[in-house]
Amino acid sequence: MKNKKILIVDDEENIRILFKEELEDEGYAVDLASNGFEAIEKVKNNSYDLVVLDIKMPGIDGIQTLNEIKKINTNQPVILCSAYGEFRQDFSSWASDAYVVKSADTKELKQTIAKILTQNG
Amino acid sequence: MKTIQLLGEIIEISNSNLEINSRMQAILNIISHRMEFEEVLVFKLDKDKRLTCSYANEKSRLYPIVNKYRCHIGEGVIGTVAQKRVPQYFNHNDIPPRFGCIFFNELDDVMYNYRSFAFIPVSDDSFLYGVLVVISRSMEGIKDNDKILLAIIAREIGGLLKTNDLLINSKKRISELVTLSELGKILTTNLEPQTILKNTVFTIAKALNAVFASINIDWPIPKMECHRFVYGNLNGSLAEIVEDCEKQAIQQKKTITYEYYNDNNDLQVKKIYSLYSSPILTKNKAIGVLTIGFLKPGKNFYQNEDMLYITTTITNYIANGLENILLSTKLKEVIKELNETQKRVIEQEKFKSLGEMMANIAHEIKNPLVVIGGFTKRLAKKVNLSQTENRYANIIVSEVARLESILNDVLNYVKEPPPILDECNINACIEDILYLFTSDGSWEGIKITKDLDPSLPLILCDVQQMKQVFINMILNSFEAMNGKGEITIQTKNIADDENHPQIMISISDTGGGIDPTIIENIFNPFFTTKEKGTGLGLAISNKIVKNIGGRIEIENIVGKGVTFKIYLPVNKNKNNGEV
Distance between CA atoms of B166 and B163, rounded to whole angstroms? Predict the structure, then answer.
């Protein structure tokens, strides 16, 4: 579980900081990207065990970013993390490995990350 | 001198303003009185080419007998005179047996009283109007002078009858025109169709002096429960007869007449109705029937050709007007409905954009809230806070949680509807899709073979989602074959290894199969071999099938083709539809 490398993608700086600190507390190595393009570049050049992707972002949104990331690496685990609840019903979000509604309580996010990382060894 | 005076009097009466019956009777009385004939009768030729004894001198004894029957042209003495337009005279040696009709047998008892007879055609150069009959007890027969005088008088009577016919006809035409123009006015008003129809039957009944007039509309009129509009009394057995007439009129597509004897009358008075039913035709299709009923004035009232003609004319006249009214009513309703739908759509749109706005605001608030709550938590964890400060931090965290839950409600408010699970006939679903595809010209090169199991049970699923699955599969096959080849679709009712009932849908193509190196990726999202593919088709199909507890298997024969086999569970308990 330790030393797993996670990329957090969110356009809000404070959210990035919050998630980074929370996940580092859990012992993960956390990298940050503030938009979709940056995230795609980082996925191309680095190897992450998991990508946590916000949906509503300027430029390209999380769903498009997800599409691009899966093109680079079909097996790249991705969690969509958004304030929206509605995307759970959207076909496009099915491509992600999990969907978490963004919350001040990071418990659900942490549990989902742990579950996916365990599944993928 | 006497003769001239007689003719002068007759001409004077003939030209007077008196009513026709009075004029005729006065003339016949003068003939009887001055020329000493006991009987002076005029048989009038009616429209139906039969002769009726319509006028007689005041003291006539034969009139009540001969008035009862009518004779045809060519029948008996009167009929022959009418036909040949040549007078006939008889004296005591050759008393005519009966006047022309075998039914005149009552005459036999009275005829011996009379000795001289003259039957003179009442006609002008072109038309016959009737027969003048004069009879006397004189043994001398009809004198030659009288024969000439009677011929002149007959001509004068002919002129009188002719003028009268013309007058009656023109009066009739005028009243017809008035009726039609009244109807025209009614039909072009802006009133409700119900009111227009009520006014129409009222006008028809009043104008034609009918007992009742009824219009039965056979046309769907919005918000109109009653389809029959009646003015006058129409109930009991009469109503049934009218319905019968209407049926016949529609069947024969022409005006029909019917005589109805009402025995069932409390007043013990037999009423005889004469009914005219005429189909209201537009474009050779009946949109209703007009029925007009008259009380017959007496036994001798003959089949009225005029009424038949008038009924038909009126019906033709109102047909177009009615059709326009009915159409415009329907149009108004449709426009109204359209407006309401449009209003509803606008409302929905407003509501939707309001929802979207709410969701946007909620989304924007949510992020800072996550930050506030998240960091408060971290703050409380990191710093050794006193009990009071810890309590404050907890309050912030719990209030943030409360706000978050409110926002989640708002954000979920505009989400997509969940799948609608319903019992679905998969065969019908496939037929629908195939119909859709094969009606497209680009599918000409595809041969489709169907083998659909008719015993296939209903499947609990979202029909639209299921259609999406089949569309994806069939489109894949189509594209794999470049629009040329064979697609075989089979459905089958089977049981799985654990004996659970399920159905199998197989879709095979002849598109050469899938490259084995990529076959395990085909259900992955965004995986595609097509230039313009999204790579979501099969992924979505797989997800839909999995959602209702089914699975998709692939049989791939490289160089030949692919078969997708979709297995779906049969859920017997439809009330327990959550799968």
Answer: 5
Residue B334: predicted pLDDT: 76
A67 and B526 in contact by Cβ < 8 A?
A: yes
Within 8 A of B367 by CB-CB distance, chain A residues are 12, 14-15, 83, 102
For residue B331, what are its two tokens?
Answer: 């149009």
pTM above threshold 0.90: no
In this structure, which topology does domain B2-170 adopt according to CATH? Beta-Lactamase (3.30.450)
Contact B367 A85 (CB under 8 A): no
The proportion of chain A whose per-residue pLDDT surpasses 90, expressed as a percent, equals: 52
Q: What residue type is B340 in one-letter code? A: E
CATH architecture of the domain covering A5-119? 3-Layer(aba) Sandwich (3.40)
Contact between B421 and B460 under an 8 Å Cβ cutoff? The reply is yes
Task: Note the ipTM here.
Answer: 0.83
Q: Which of A45, A41, A120 is nearest to A79 (CA)?
A: A120
DSSP single-letter state for residue B386:
-
Contacts of A83 in chain B (CB under 8 A): 362-363, 366-367, 370, 407, 411
Question: Residues B313-365: pLDDT tens digits?
Answer: 888 888 888 888 877 877 787 788 777 777 777 766 666 666 667 777 887 88
Distance from CA of A9 to the nearest CA of B (A): 14
CATH number for the B175-320 domain, one of 3.30.450.40, 3.40.50.150, 1.10.10.10, 1.50.10.100? 3.30.450.40
Q: Show which residues on chain B lie within 8 Å of chain A, measured between beta carbons.
A: 359, 362-363, 366-378, 397, 400-401, 404, 407-408, 411-412, 414-418, 521, 524-527, 536, 539-540, 543
